[in-house]
Amino acid sequence: MSRIAAVLIPMPLPEAFDYAEPEGMALSVGDQVRVPLGPRDVRGVVMALREAAGGNRPLKPVSERLDEPPLPPGTLAFVQWAGRYAADLPGAPLAIALRGARAPPPRPMRLLRAPGVAPARATPARARVLEVLPDTGLSGADLSRAAGVSAGVVKSLLDEGVLSVEFAVESRSFGRHEPALPGAELNASQAAAAAELGGMVRATGFQVALLDGVTGSGKTEVYLEAVAAALAAGPEGQALILLPELALPQAVIARVAGRFGAEPGEWHSGVAPPARRRVWEGVASGDCQIVVGARSALFLPFRNLRLIVVDEEHDGSFKQEEGFIYHARDLAVARGRIEGAPVVLASATPSLESLRNAETGRYRWLRLAARHGSARMPDIDLIDLRETPPETGRWLSPPLVTAMAETWARGEQSLLFLNRRGYAPLVLCKACGERLRAPDSDTWLVEHRYTGRLVCHLTGFSMPKPAACPHCGAKDSLTAIGPGVERLEEEARGLFPDARIAVFSSDTVFDAREARRMVQTMAQGEIDILVATQAAAKGHNFPNLTLVGVVDADLGLRGGDLRAGERTYQLLAQATGRAGRRDRPGRALIQTYAPEHPVMQALKAQDRDAFVAAEMAEREAAGLPPFGRLAAAILSGPDDFQLEAFARTMAEAAPNAQGVIVYGPADAPLGLVRGRRRKRFLVQAGREGDLSAYMAAWRARVRPPGAIRVTLDIDPYSFL
Question: Which of 196, 362, 606, 624 has its CA 20 to 30 A from that of 596?
């Protein structure tokens, strides 16, 4: 009797579709197949197989089983769990899991002489091509060069069939990692934490540990020993290290290579598609033992995953905000549970969710309270900008400028931290007061002096800076309001014209290679003053950096984000922690208009526990995470009236559930994005219920009109 294959397709479809298994195909769960869907064949994955017991409807057959690695059972279970957790269609996480499989393979191409085919037209140039072409073939570029002809001559012979193309798949395996190689010398605290993690790994079961260590305490060296234990437990063991930033993987990759004798697989958006495919296939085959990557690396098809590390676990960039919405830290814990693998969450400023789990005993809590070696934490002072403001038209206060001059005179480095890209965050017309906004959006255009353009950092829209105001036509009336990192660099160059100054932001560092070069240049002492956003504020070790100046410490406290205080403390603690990483004492100066704010006082006193206790008490009283849960429903559409009507319909359709409160609909803070109006619901619930199921049931009760989109966000991090 033939079988029925339930095939999940990586598209926004509500469920897996049934297909008939052709006789002799012998499918298995996890196989990648090609199946008919409408007028075309598409890729899918076999999620289940069952006997065709008297079905009364004809099924289309599976077209073919692809010669691709199957998805392991753990990956299939994780994809299904992730879809349910995010209250999203199941094909969305599968699309992420197949991203590497669908990338083009690295295929070097060579041209060969096709037997028995003569050129339709003989010319001297064509004759030279055929004379110099060896039997083993050449690439098109090499053949043109050897024959001294243009690429068009070679192409014409290829089009006529005189030449044929042969693709050779590059077979380059990953180097084997050696866990027995000596690691870094650990102090007593590090050695105790490494022993605890090693015991977790050798116990071969799911557990979670919070590796909570101050900046510079050597957390990376500790969790690399856990990786060594995972590899030593068996030759097929694999480990995943998740990182939040493009720049951070480069430093960790170098440490992994130094510790284990071979580079790990690298997985993030900056990796070229052929290299991504090579990593995907290496993970699926078990040839790639260690992967260092961004959040989507969680969806790779690991054969024998024995350890997951989430470095800088508090970082907000682990939250994917578009497409399939998820938080990589939370999904890492879920994947560890599914795979039966331990999970290590590492941070100098852990999230309140992780701290709460550690306090209640759900996670092991490993603390590194001191910096490694002779280094100590920097002294932190607050600069009250109400008492010592910068000069007119400047952004650096006199105490900070004086400290920078003293640091430079000693031959040491300074870092100016401002988490704002570009030259200025707002462009204003002095004649009419018009604030330049992105078209069809409520976002301001940011001036970038390096490129001479105005850019929307939300939608990606950019335009040359106009000579006249687009609103009133006044010439030379547009002025920059507020500072960005480019403006700070301009001010620093005016104050220290002989200093070597550089800017580190996503506008000046475009890819992983450039990030690595910038980090190395700074670490080697070739930069005197580094002006940086959060791209350089965490995870890096700059031995000669002794002064950190935080230019606008109040920036993250503005707005109604429930995590504003937590995020600001985390970011500034990480930024100030860059100073004094070796034997030279460090110092941090924080410019603020609110030195009395609890976040600023906690930073000055370096009393994280007091800040966390106060923040936890406020969250518990309000029933907010980590003591409760939140979810959001974001509605968007091009027509105000249609959106308003649908929002009322959706509000009326909200299920009644004990302990669940629905707020809204309300206009989103960013009410217009790319021509679409936006409204939001916020749902609050206790931790005991299934909030994902509630949101999925709510969405199933309504059918939005064609122009309206409904996006669900479980455990939201953005409230815009």
Answer: 624
